[in-house]
Amino acid sequence: VVDIGKLYGQAGLFTYDPGFTSTAACESKITYVDGEAGHLLYRGYPVEDLVARGDFLETCYLLLYGELPTVKQKHDFDDKVTRHTMVHEQMVRFYQGFRRDSHPMAVMVGSVGAMSAFYHDSTDIADPHQRMLACIRMIAKMPTIAAMAHKYTTGQPFVYPKNDLSYAGNFLRMCFSVPFEEYKVNEVLARAMDRIFILHADNEQGASTSTVRLAGSSGANPFACIAAGVACLWGPAHGGANEAALKMLTAIGTPERIPEFIARAKNPDDPFRLLGFGHRVYKSYDPRAALMRDICREVLAETGGDPLFDVALELERAAMTDQYFVEKKLFPNLDFYSGLTLRAMGFPPAMFTAVFSLARTAGWIAQWMEMIADPSQKIGRPRQLYTGATRREYVPVGRRG
Ligand code: ACO
């Protein structure tokens, strides 16, 4: 707690909490994380149950409305989402303005932000109908936008949505079907994709979700807020860790080299960290990492295996029995096995965080809706602890020597 009176002659106290390690910025009824026990609940439902028995669109409904849908509600919601999967044809031309070798996340930040230009009939946040339309549009169009980013940056023609497919099946087809070749959705991979989306759907106030809320607190439109979330997610300490973790596993290459990398991660003079390890809130095994490891195993059984999976398993085992990691409570997080899984499904590493952003849109949009509906909501405006110069006399440039 800082006494700002002492600093600036103003009355009052504020807390100084870099990284918000112990400051709640909002109330929320959406997602509960028990980091000590390693539990993640969406609206009270364990993520394990949703992954085993639910599907992603049902999870989106749950996050948005607070309850699991009835049969009719589910049918209507799926139908609404399906009818909004196309993006405006002008957006195709918008994509063509990006450099052909752009990172897909750069394309995602730009194209999600641009949605407020293409869909301005759902940007009036005072209108509940427009707010819900924006949510449906985001959930429906994110797979199309992410698949277009993939196709564009790999130089292939865009594939339009096929609405008789499942949400995940349609996404895989838009990413991987190529002209003049029959594409049949692999149901094992589509189910894996759907479960991966559920695992990534929300995780309470992660950096990107807090960014969405902060942007939204100014009254910015939902597309602009989600674009801010996508930008934040890109960083290697957040969603970008899946790409970085796979690069690390590739650099390790064989189990024999694991001790060398563990030693580097423990060395205080080396900035290297084990990517896909550690979490601000999970101080025991991240439940999503265990589920992702199972999905990874199933996907690799379908696609022919990957020697790096054995490296990952061995790295996990070695870290979990190392005093440094045990004492600091550093466990694998969601990103540790997701890169391996997504690569096995055919995604290039640059697409991993784009897939994450597609799925996390469900949580972002639900959190944004909750915030807008909260009458106690104020513009987010953190304080700072000023440590710069005290008042100084201006010296004209000619007299500065
Ligand atoms: N490897 C080695 N040491 C680590 C690691 C790691 N992956 N993570 C944390 N530590 C150490 C730190 O050096 C620090 O040690 P110290 O107390 O001696 O200074 C201690 O553990 C605490 O780490 P902090 O950085 O203070 O923890 P914080 O909560 O701020 O960071 C974070 C959490 C960013 C996730 C961190 O663990 C990290 O950088 N991990 C690697 C990147 C990663 O996997 N990110 C994905 C996050 S999950 C997600 O976005 C889905």
TrEMBL record:
Alphabetical list of CDD domains matching this protein: EcCS_like
InterPro entries per record: Citrate_synth-like_lrg_a-sub, Citrate_synth-like_sm_a-sub, Citrate_synthase, Citrate_synthase_AS, Citrate_synthase_bac-typ, Citrate_synthase_sf, Citrate_synthase_typ-I
Keyword Acyltransferase assigned: yes
Keyword Lipid biosynthesis: no
Signal peptide range in chain numbering: none
Family that this chain belongs to: Belongs to the citrate synthase family.
PANTHER family attached to this UniProt entry: CITRATE SYNTHASE (PTHR42871)
One Pfam family linked to the record: Citrate_synt
Biochemical pathway: Carbohydrate metabolism; tricarboxylic acid cycle; isocitrate from oxaloacetate: step 1/2
Annotated catalysed reactions: oxaloacetate + acetyl-CoA + H2O = citrate + CoA + H(+)
Gene that encodes the chain: gltA
GO molecular function: citrate synthase activity
Annotated protein name in UniProt: Citrate synthase
Keyword entries, A-Z: Acyltransferase, Transferase, Tricarboxylic acid cycle
